[in-house]
């Protein structure tokens, strides 16, 4: 009887000492894990780029409609509800397009600046355990690279702009390394690095603000 009680207590202690699962409240460095918000941010990025690079016209509305018909083309089951992702993307695309046309950057900065004001992509800690939430949810590796790379580039550009530096995305250590968030999750290092760097440069362009 005593042996049974001891074994039960040991098993309970083992369960109590297991690492806590990652949660949406952690200061991870990529996109949100809520399906609607994740779709919104991807839609906003695409809409902001669209509004920056095109002019209002009748033909443009056809182009917008075509884009929104494929709002869930990048959807993965690990994101959650497909409907919520699609609805968020549609709303985000329209908001991003409107903000780019009006020159409003406040929402862009609110969405993509780091949660931690002391975070610097070039000096980040090697311990990025919180970013494991993405592979834990079975997100594609190149999608993770794109989300993290965009935010790292956005933050690097804002720092450069605030310090009066010229635009220089490829001189950043984060861009050169290109592996922030990599966890051997279904992509080679080269594939991950290429996706990260491309997103870093896009985020840097939006963060620096030279789009007029």
What does it look like?
The protein is mainly alpha-helical. The protein is built from 9 helices and no strands. Helix 2 (35-53) runs parallel beside helix 4 and helix 7 (141-162) packs parallel to helix 9 (189-208). The model is unreliable at 2-26 (pLDDT under 50).
Poorly predicted parts: 2-26
Helical content class: 55-70%
Describe the main β-sheet briefly: none
Count of individual beta strands: 0
- Number of separate helices: 9
Percentage of residues in DSSP E strands: under 5%
Distance between the termini: 78 Å
* Estimated structural class: mainly alpha
Mean pLDDT reading: 83
Radius of gyration: 20 Å
Globally, the shape reads globular
H-E order: HHHHHHHHH
Gist of the model:
With 212 residues, the chain is mostly helical. It has helices at 2-16, 35-53, 58-69, 82-102, 106-112, 132-136, 141-162, 173-177, 189-208. α2 (35-53) packs parallel to α4 (82-102).
Secondary structure elements and pairings:
Elements: H1 2-16, H2 35-53, H3 58-69, H4 82-102, H5 106-112, H6 132-136, H7 141-162, H8 173-177, H9 189-208
Helix pairs in contact: 2-4, 7-9
Question: What keyword list fits this structure?
Answer:
single chain, 212 residues
